[in-house]
Amino acid sequence: VFPEDLPGIPPTRQVEFQIDLVPGAAQIAQAPYRLASSEMKELADQLQELTDKWFIRPSSSPWGAPVLFFKKKDGSFRMCIDYRELNKLTDGSFRMCINYWELNKPMVKNNYPLPRIYDLFDQLQGSSIYSKIDLRSGYHQLRVREEDIPKTAFRTRYGHYEFHDMPFGLTSALAVFMDLVN
């Protein structure tokens, strides 16, 4: 019933991810992190997969966050973008991670209410039938506002890329995703 992989750029929806910055915020451009040779191979593979699925595209943005990897429980790598600098601008296998820390600093935070786990458990009381759904690559199902796409840029030794859809690691991403789900 559900596709194994997402077909590409998500459809236009009422909710889109916005990266609103506090007044006076400067652009963040960080150099790529040094990666081990095994991580470089994984990076090349994941960049190709993300490009093939239309999740990312080459970028000439003045913005740029570095990439790092975390080892998953199964031994594979997860790529992450270090958005810590971007998140500071707000008022957030190997896993590829993009460091958006600096970008998150000047971002205006979305205060959409997140459910509390105890409230969710309370709603289940008295139920006898349960179901669940795993929204495969959930963040990739929400577009980034067109003028904010350059802010999602990340830098690697293989090139400079940006996301069409909401990347994991940015401030307010969870709140915006919950808004979409609700």
CATH class: Alpha Beta
- Domain unit count: 1
Class per helix and strand makeup? alpha/beta
Q: Whole-Å distance between the termini? A: 22 Å
Total DSSP E strands: 7
Radius of gyration, whole Å:
17 Å
* Overall spatial form: globular
Low-pLDDT sequence parts? none
Oligomer: single chain
Judging by the overall fold, what is the CATH architecture?
Roll
Description:
This protein is of the alpha/beta class and 182 residues long. The chain has one domain: Roll (HIV Type 1 Reverse Transcriptase, Chain A, domain 1), CATH 3.10.10. 20% of the residues lie in helices and 23% in strands. Strand 6 and strand 7 form a beta hairpin. The longest helix is centred in the N-terminal third of the chain and has 16 residues, at 37-52. It is globular. It starts with 36 loop residues before the first helix and ends with a helix. The model has no long low-confidence stretch (mean pLDDT 82).
Looking at this protein, list some descriptive labels:
HIV Type 1 Reverse Transcriptase, Chain A, domain 1, 182 residues, 4 helices, 20% helix, single chain, 7-stranded mixed beta sheet, endonuclease, alpha/beta, 23% strand
